Amino acid sequence: MSRLNRKYGFVAIILIMLFLVYVWTSRFGANIPSSEGYMPLLRENAWYLVYLGLIATAFALISLFLEFKLSRSAAFIGWVFYFPVIFNTLVPMFILFFSIIGVFYTPWLAFTDFAFANRLINGVIRLPSETMHTFLDGLGYIFIVSGLAVYSLGLFQLLSHARKERIIVASGLYSVSRHPQYLGIFMWTLGFALLGWRLINYLMWLTLCYSYVLLAEFEELELEKKFGQDYFQYKTKVPFIIPYLKLNTRFVSSTMSNRKMRLLAYTVLCVLLLFAFYYIFEPYTVLYR
């Protein structure tokens, strides 16, 4: 069964990569933009953020594929559509298409022909208060730094226990979150979304988070089979992803004890948050092109 899941996972990845190739070639043919073009318009002070984001993404993808399964293909696709968020810290998408960096915006390219989607992608959030802009920029940097720290420490703690296959990692960050690595990814990717000042950034961030929640659920299914009652006891003590977040009401406990109900609840929550982000930031979105 695992071999079949791995096969379907790779098929999903191949299909999404073929889709990206088709999107680019149908618009631009086999031509690759020059490395010059509108490059002088890029914000030079944001380049180090792009490099940092690329490195962090590479590490996240490497750890994602260390043990490939079908559920991980969903997370990979989530990364594909989140990836352009990193370059949003530079300049709007339509300018980047005049340089080679535009290739990295291919996942969103197919949707720019629609007025609604184009506004989401190329619209820039402009809040009436400059103080709020400064505050959110600072918050973005904090999320990036703290998120990378949490991710790195969680990965280190997990790898340090890798040889102890029959031991549940329950110390350090794993004593307050069952998936601290994913928590770290949620944090630093949110930081890039904040610094890009695009509405699409938040929608893609939520999509990425949702894919990792699904991944975590499938991983826990395997851990329950491997460790049995020991892992069930660990789950009762430690929150899912967000530290110290435990909803212990009878209704929530009975509902969330069923995996199908949890997946439904996560899906509904993701959809509600997508609408919430849209209606909060859309009035402040300005389209310059």
Account of the 3D structure:
The chain is 67% helix and 1% strand. The model has no long low-confidence stretch (mean pLDDT 84). The chain starts with a helix and ends with a strand. The protein has 13 helices and 2 strands, in the order αααααααβααααααβ. The chain has one domain. It has helices at 2-28, 47-64, 70-82, 84-87, 93-96, 106-109, 115-122, 130-160, 180-196, 199-227, 229-237, 250-256, 259-281, and strands spanning 124-125, 285-286. A two-stranded antiparallel ribbon has the order 1-2. With 289 residues, it is mainly alpha-helical.
Q: Brief overview, please?
A:
The protein is mainly α. The protein contains 13 helices and two strands; from the N terminus they run H-H-H-H-H-H-H-E-H-H-H-H-H-H-E. Strands 1-2 form a two-stranded antiparallel ribbon.
Provide the fold topology.
Blueprint: H1 2-28, H2 47-64, H3 70-82, H4 84-87, H5 93-96, H6 106-109, H7 115-122, E1 124-125, H8 130-160, H9 180-196, H10 199-227, H11 229-237, H12 250-256, H13 259-281, E2 285-286
Antiparallel strand pairs: 1-2
